[in-house]
Structure prediction request, 741 residues.
Amino acid sequence: MSGTKKMSGAEIFFEALRKENVDTIFGYPGGATIKLYEQLYDVDFLEHILCRHEQGATHMAKGYAIVKGKPGVVLVTSGPGATNTVTGIADAYMDSVPIVVFTGQVPTHLIGNDAFQEADIVGITRPITKHNFLVRSIEELAPTIQKAFYIASSGRPGPVLVDLPKDIIASETVFNYPTKIDIRGYKPQVKGHHNQIKKAAQMIQNAKKPLLYVGGGVIMSDGNKELGVLAKETGIPVTMTLQGLGAYPGTDKQSLGMLGMHGTFAANMAINECDVLIALGARFDDRVTGKIETFSPNSYKIHVDIDPTAIDKNVLVDLPIVGDVKHVIAEIAAEIDKKTDLSDWWNQINAWQNECPLSYEKEDGKLRTEYVIERISEKTKGNAIIVTDVGQHQMWVSQYYKFTNPRSHLTSGGLGTMGFSVPAAIGAAFAEKKRPIISISGDGGFQMNLQELITAAAYKLPIKFIIMNNSFLGMVRQWQELYHAEKYSFTDLGASNPDFVKVGEALGVKSFSTNKMDEVDGLLDKVMKMNDGPTLIEFKVEKEDMVFPMVPSGGSISDIITKRLNPKKMV
Amino acid sequence: MKRTISVLVENTFGAFDRVATMFSGKGFNIDSISIGQTEIEEVSRMTIVTEGNDQILDQVVKQLNRLIDTIKVVDLSKEPKTVRELALVKVNHENHSLQEIKNLADIFRGKVVDINNKTITLEITGPPEKIEAAVNVFLPFGIKEMARSGTVALKRGEQSIPSNKKNKTK
Prediction:
């Protein structure tokens, strides 16, 4: 739509969103954006979701973006509205999720004057955005919005922020949306180097102990089908990072589960012993590698990633391939022309699996998080969208929920943001109407964004909110017990926790609670049938359980702890 | 080891800050940084002198490339290049003869750019090592004040860094 008719900045803003096929925005109005909200009143092609806190809006956008596979959009006002988005932006940056955040700004002539509700949000978010913009003239508005969506969703995705001064939104120009986009300093490389790909295929098919190490990049590039083909054609075992879960079915026998600090024993042993390590869209994060010097010491390392900075950042690799993981996996698979017998390798892996499978105490009849997650996994056949918070329950989900689909495991991996689960599940609910959406939090993280239960209730979203209440900040407590002289400093929430059922009910959520193993199935069945609004179950679980196996921070595989050494008495 | 990196950036609001933020955020050192116009109006050139081993420098170059506003990044460390820096040095001459100071400045092809009854200001250009040497010579006289431009550098020969290279990767 272009012509000679002049449009206001507010009209142009929404026309640009229409061009970008935006159907949902998460936001909260304020003084600097009031003109946009005035215009929004007459906009019918998108739904605006009113959050209760701007941090909630950014987590919602991330949840939406992962499930939908396109950028989540946030609209907030200047000053505190903008600064409240910072945690959500940093979170999306660490996990490479495309979100576009529009912030109101004071009028251009007041910028720098310490005006009411002014914050230099472009300066503040510079190190936590893929890119950001301050729109300085009405003519720049439409092209900037186009660039923002393009940068957020291409290459290695990430958050982009666009700061919109109030006077620019009020001024007028002819709407002109560029048909082509060309940013001279930004040309993401999609195709991998052909000779490198050929060499990778050679190394893979001649390996005796190969291992696929799969990260979130495979999911973000929609490369799960190509990965499935490569894995099935070669018979190579697959281990996934926290963000990679769902890229390959957790129910398949070739899946070794997650690797790293709380990964499976077999996955970590396989990393240690493999001769060719194929890293796909993963970044050798410290929670994966532990001590760099002893990480996968004997392997030839192939690393495929769209971001050149990910290569040789933590671990030096032998064969880097820069390109879109989906394309590169398909090309590697096409180059492989023989299948190597991996039965010795599989015998070894199976021996590790039998030596130390994932396990927890069931016989004492006490309610444990692992049991609840196993039951949820069973009941949903690994097909739900699981949105976790941060801490012990997050690791237990990664161990016991057998994801069968990509874009189904939403978690704050890189930043580790407590309070992520409740709002992110809401974002997911606007992206997916058919599959069940289950938010799982600990009692600590749940309290960090519980105001968004109001949003879930207002929009009658059929989300199942689950609280694994162990009355502790469990993961910190675990470290305190293991490494900090059992000084349980400020991690015991037991005395101050609210009545979660009353909280839920007060905010419009049908809420239940139990501490009994034999009530788990009944309650889960009950809430799975209640789909006219949100529901909540508080599971009062064992207080002092720990997540195992555990490779201590900065440790090697030889330091792995597989069970509690000195069984303690419960408090 | 000292490294010299030449960076062409869009001459836009905040481009310099993005580079500085990246260096501090990633914990890389900056010895000197200079920025100025190029032959193309909307492009600026930054010359950054940094320190680190090959792996760190590899990351510096990649991280610079990753910024949307950077058009081209070239590591000039191992290239034949012309390197210059400018220093303005305000030297105390109260207890020394002006001629003595001027003779010393001549050795470094320095110019007198300001003078009064207490101080003399010299302009010295050249590679950073030459500036260092000159500064050391004037230290005993008492340097009242000094300003250095930081290094600028260009590759030798007819080759130039194209500002619209197509296959830049992020």
